[in-house]
Structures are given as structure tokens and as C-alpha cells.
Amino acid sequence: MTSKPLVAILSGAGVSTDSGIPDYRGPNGLWRRDPEAEKLVTYEYYMGDPEIRRRSWRMRRDNQALGAEPNAAHRAVAELERSGVPVRVITQNVDGLHQLAGLTARKVLELHGTARGYVCTSCGARGPMEEALARVEAGEDDPPCRECGGILKSATVMFGESLDPVVLGEAVAISKACQVFIAVGTSLQVQPAAGLAGVAADHGARLVVVNAEPTPYDDLADEVVREPIGSALPELLRGLG
Questions:
Q1: Has residue 27 got a pLDDT over 60?
Q2: Is-catalytic flag, 112?
Q3: Which listed residue, 81, 89, 96, 222, has the most CB atoms within 10 A of its CB?
Q4: In whole angstroms, what is the distance from residue 119 CA to residue 154 CA?
């Protein structure tokens, strides 16, 4: 009996658009089009300007992403895991929808952190975002850390912050070890995440790119799929299961 191949899936914003979550960080995303909006998620501005923080907390309060539901692509990945295929997801998304779809949390590496939690920039205390947003609703427009009084922020990687080196290291290790690497819904233009596709291919993985637009790694790919992700990814993963 042959063992099933390790499948690594690099998921980008395109995986979550069917759930109603727009691409904020892409080349045409809100943060790029509106410099004032981009300041709300830029670490230097956020830490240095209380008004930016107050606006950022209002944005989080009004953000519909926390109420989004997994779509067919997220469910297909969870179903692949349930079928017994070893799966690891490396995601550029912060919405937590892979886990909500039923994928085992420890098998998801969140390169850009999560919007479902907050972190204190001074003492590192963490908690669920709902807890911080409840304080905003109650009238705290810039809620301080209850442990040390420090500045709280979303547990996401803001512009100007580095990726967690431990998480990135695990992502590189998975990319080297997998037999199949699927890059889905990502332009593969932002490093270091994009480079994982090249790492996987260099170590002998079958590289599949599923994206509406061309990517810099298409020529390296064994297969390029331009079909809508909500139908293309489930079909692709059924073939692996």
C-alpha cells in the first residue's frame, strides 16, 4: 500500500472572495488605492497616532469579514483532509475560514496572522477579537491592554511588520517536503510567500497554479488552471483524494 502524497496549499485572497471578503492588500486592493485607509493597517502610523488607532478600531468594528462563512473552496480543502490525504495549508489570508470549514487548526499556517484575535504590542497578551470589539461598542474608542495598559492591535501582520520567522520557517519546511504544491487565489507576486512555490518546485513537487490572472510562476508550473476557484479547486482536490 502506497502512502498518500503530502499536499501543500498556498491560499491567497482569491480563495475568500466567494465568501464576500474583498482583496484589501492586492495591487488594486483598498489599502493600495486609498493611502489614508492604508495608514490604518500600517504599524508606524498605528502606533504613533491615537486618531489612526481610533479609526482602525471603528474599521474593525464595521468589518463584515468576521461574519463571513467558508465557501466551496474552503470546504473542499477540509474534505480532502477528512479523506485521509495529508494536507497543510499555508495561507496569506487572515479570515480564519479554513479552520471554520473544518480543517484541523494546527494544519493551517497563517503567514499574515489572524483578524480573529488581538495582541498587546507591549506585553504580548492575546485574546479573541470579539472581546476587544465589545469594549469598542461599550465606548472605549482605543481600548488599552488590561494586563499592562499597552496598545492593542489586531493579531495580523501590518504593513511595516515582519512575518513571524517561526511560521515562515515551517512554511518553507512544508514546501520542501510536499509532493504536490497548489498555489490558489494568489498573484504570487509578494515575497516571501510567493517564493514558496519555487521552493516546492525545486524540491521535486508537482506545482499547480489556480488563479484568474497570470503569475510569475506559471512557466514553472506543471499545471495552470484559470477556471473559477469555487469550482476548479474542489474538482482538482477530488482528483487527489
A1: no
A2: yes
A3: 89
A4: 6
Phi, psi of 49 (to 5 degrees): -135, 110
Question: Going along the chain, which residue ranges are E strands?
Answer: 7-11, 87-91, 108-110, 113-120, 126-128, 152-156, 180-184, 206-210, 223-225
Amino acid type, 101: A
Q: Phi and psi (nearest 5°) for 97?
A: -75, -25
227 DSSP 8-state letter: S
From 19, 196, 162, select the one nearest 91 (Cα to Cα): 196
Mean confidence (pLDDT) of the chain: 92
Residue 139, SS3 per DSSP:
coil
Residues 6+ apart with CB under 8 A from 83: 241
- Other CB atoms within 10 Å distance of the CB of residue 204: 9
The model's pTM = 0.91
pLDDT in tens, 70-128: 999 999 999 999 999 999 999 999 999 999 999 999 999 999 999 999 999 999 999 99
Query: How many residues are listed for the chain in this entry?
Result: 241
